[in-house]
Amino acid sequence: MSAIIINEKNYKKEIERCKKPVLLSFLSDTGVSSLLLKQTADEISGEIKTGVVELNPTNAGLAEKYNIRFLPTTVLLKNSVVTDKIVGNMSREDFIKILKTP
Q1: What's the number of domains the chain is made of?
Q2: CATH code at position 68
Q3: What is the pLDDT of residues 24-34, one digit of tens each?
Q4: What is the pLDDT of residue 3?
Q5: Nearest CA to 36 among 88, 95, 84, 86?
Q6: Which residue did the predictor score with more confidence, 100 or 76?
């Protein structure tokens, strides 16, 4: 399962109600991290849910909710609480490391 595109309309269903940890990346629509996140999502499918928020005016509320100031920013949520936040590009190894952190 690849990363899910998250927006204001599906956020509650896909993120808030999710029982698994969630890796949520805020990107511009041309972010290189988007492809990396999607590849990593395929690799770790089942362990964690991965989502991508393409930052645009319709998703500004989600960026505000997580205090996103720079792109790309990736947050790890456990029980809807941010447990880790990384600003800037990440390598595949960084994605895996953040996912394996207890």
Answers
A1: 1
A2: 3.40.30.10
A3: 889 876 455 55
A4: 77
A5: 95
A6: 76
Quote the CA–CA distance of 83 and 6 in Å, as a whole number: 19
Cα angle 17, 41, 100; round to 5: 80
Q: Kindly state the percentage of the chain with pLDDT values over 70.
A: 75
CB atoms within 10 A of CB 75: 22
How many whole angstroms separate alpha carbon 102 and alpha carbon 97? 10
Which residue range(s) make up the domain with 84?
A: 4-100
**Helix residue ranges, H only, the chain:** 11, 32-43, 60-65, 92-100
Torsion of CA 7, 63, 31, 99, to 10 degrees: -90
- For residues 52 and 21, give the distance between their C-alpha atoms in angstroms, rounded to a whole number: 14
Sign of dihedral through CA atoms 15, 81, 66, 55? negative
